Amino acid sequence: VQLVESGGGLVQPGGSLRLSCAVSGFIFSDYYMTWVRRAPGKGLEWVSDINNGGGSTRYADSVKGRFTISRDNAKNTLYLQMNRLKPEDTALYYCARGRGTVYSARGQGTQVTVSS
Fold first, then answer.
1. pLDDT tens, residue by residue, 9-24
2. 49, 80, 93, 115: which one has the fewest Cβ atoms less than 10 Å from its Cβ?
């Protein structure tokens, strides 16, 4: 099982980034997928999840209206479009196989830094 995140970087407040998570080693379309993040000095925070077909999504209140989760089951890839980024969005972002904070596999993470 492999989950590999990419797309992080340094962005100014108000900017956008699109994270990707390429998965292998399991049948991607069979699983809910989730994004979680860890800000400096803080615990793991659930960000968003999506059902296996992509038709049902959920978001943490802190990102609702700014972030969009999606998936391409043909490409075994999960996405997180992040708009109107804020400094408090600075964190290491992980994709994980599962729903909410219950997951069975997780990637190594991609760093997102929002700063002017």
1. 999 999 999 999 999 9
2. 115
